C-alpha cells in the first residue's frame, strides 16, 4: 500500500476499539500495521460473530489493512521475538492498563531500551494522575461519568448511547496524537508517549454542557429528544416513520417560520427572540412542527425541509441506513470479503478524505496468525526456528 504514512511501521497490541481503530486509521493512510494477538485469538476478535470461525462485526470494522501474528509475550522466547519486532517499529499502540503494559514489557521505559525513538500510543479508561488511574473500564463508563447519560432520555431510567462514541472518539484523539508525535520525531528525533483516556474523551465531548453548568448553575434535566438551547429541535412522527429537525440560529429559524407560512406569529413573539428563548419555549415550537410532520410522509418531510435548507434527516433502521441512496452514492461503505462470511461486509471507510493522498481499504482484516511466518522471516527467523517457536507454543 502507498499513502502518506508509507514507511511507518505500527505494532498493534490494542484490544476492542480505542487502540485497534487508532491503528486502523494509520493503516488506511499507508502505515504498515501488525496486529499482535494471543495464540487462540484475542477476545475482541469474536464480538458479535458473523463468520464461520466466529470473527465478529466489530473486528471486521476496526482491523482492515492489517497483518496479524500470534505471540505469547509472557515467555522468555516470546519476549525475544517482541524485542526484534519493536526494534523495527515506529509506533506501538496498546490501550492496556499501566500494570499490564509493565507486565508485558510494553511500558515506555522498556520500549525505549529497545528503540530509543519509539512512540507509545496508549489509552486507559480513566487517565491520570488520580485515584482511579489503575481501574479498568469500557465506553459506557465514560458516557455515564461525563454527564451525557444523565441528560439522555427522559431520566428514569437514564439511557446510554447504543454506539461506542467514547471508544471511537478516543481512537480519533489517539490517531491525531500519534501523527503529531511522528511530526515531532521528524523534527527532533525524539519519541514520546501519546496517552488517551475514555473519560477525557467523554468530558471533551460534553464540555459545553459542563461549562454552562459551572458558569451559570443551570441544573438542566433530561427532556428526551427535545432540544434545550434552540428550537425546533426534536424527533417528529410522520405518516410512516420519524424525522429529526434541528434549527439553531436566527437565519434558520426565519427559514422555518417562512416554511410554516407563519412568519408574523413566530418572528415577532419575544418568547422566540433568540436561540435560548426558543429552547426555553421549545415545547410550543415543537408542537407546531409535530403537526406539520404528521401531515406528511417521511420522504415528503425531509425533501421539503431539505429544499428549504433546514437541517433534517430520517430516523433509519440499520437496514434502511445500508439501503439509503445517499449513503450508497457517497461511497462511505466499502464491501469487503472475508473467509467464511456468507456475504461481503460493508466496512466504513475512514470518515475523512484527502484530495491528493486519500486513504483506502486495500486489504481485508487478517485471519488469526495469517502473517506470522512472513513477519518472523522478515525479522531473520528461518523456517526451522519458526517451527520450534510454534511447537513451543510461543506463536
Automatic annotation (TrEMBL):
One of its GO terms (molecular function) is transferase activity. It comes from the Bacteria. InterPro entries: CoA-transferase_III, CoA-Trfase_fam_III, CoA-Trfase_III_dom3_sf, CoA-Trfase_III_dom_1_sf. Gene3D superfamilies: Crotonobetainyl-coa:carnitine coa-transferase, domain 1, formyl-coa transferase, domain 3. Keywords: Transferase. This is CoA transferase. It comes from Bradyrhizobium campsiandrae.
